[in-house]
Amino acid sequence: DSGVTQTPKHLITATGQRVTLRCSPRSGDLSVYWYQQSLDQGLQFLIQYYNGEERAKGNILERFSAQQFPDLHSELNLSSLELGDSALYFCASSPGTDYGYTFGSGTRLTVV
Amino acid sequence: GESVGLHLPTLSVQEGDNSIINCAYSNSASDYFIWYKQESGKGPQFIIDIRSNMDKRQGQRVTVLLNKTVKHLSLQIAATQPGDSAVYFCAENGGYNKLIFGAGTRLAVHP
What we know:
Largest sheet of chain B: 6 strands, mixed
Radius of gyration of chain B: 14 Å
Largest sheet of chain A: 7 strands, mixed
Strand content of chain B: over 45%
Number of helices of chain B: 0
Number of helices of chain A: 0
Order of helices and strands of chain B: EEEEEEEEEE
Oligomer: heterodimer
Number of strands of chain A: 11
Distance between the termini of chain A: 30 Å
Helix content of chain B: under 10%
Structural class of chain A: mainly beta
Largest interface: A-B, 31 and 30 residues
Distance between the termini of chain B: 21 Å
Helix content of chain A: under 10%
């Protein structure tokens, strides 16, 4: 157990729907990162939050949004889902904005 | 089942041999690099890191070599074991602690 908790582990939904993925960082970690991993691609950075504020944004689609709450957990919202959104979504956390973060075990999203 | 990279390059080694996994990075200004290991159905797991002011760093059974001249990173695993079978990713610092990951290499260890 890495200490980063992601729920749900698996999610199957239909095209056009909206889902919310949840991440609880390791105790004491202030930064949360979201990554997408498709079958034929590596890990793609989506977005980073530090202590509730957005710090960096990657190639995140406009249909996707995220936030970090006062208790530091984070949610990634994916809307108007398309088949191509099927992927593993990982959350990671780190103590600050320096290096060496820890990944959760991911949420496998399948859009049918 | 497989969760990562159906078409990844694969390195096949015999148990007990040494493994070398290579990675080319893109940004000459990157100052921090990490190797991650990802087993099927799990998230990436930190193995070892190195800063750009170093050429080599050793951990337990692993060594990372950094050649900034040719923007090349390698991970050496000594006495490879079946438990080392996984996909290995190198990553470079893309600013604000955003990591840019390489495509990954699958390591298959055969008895």
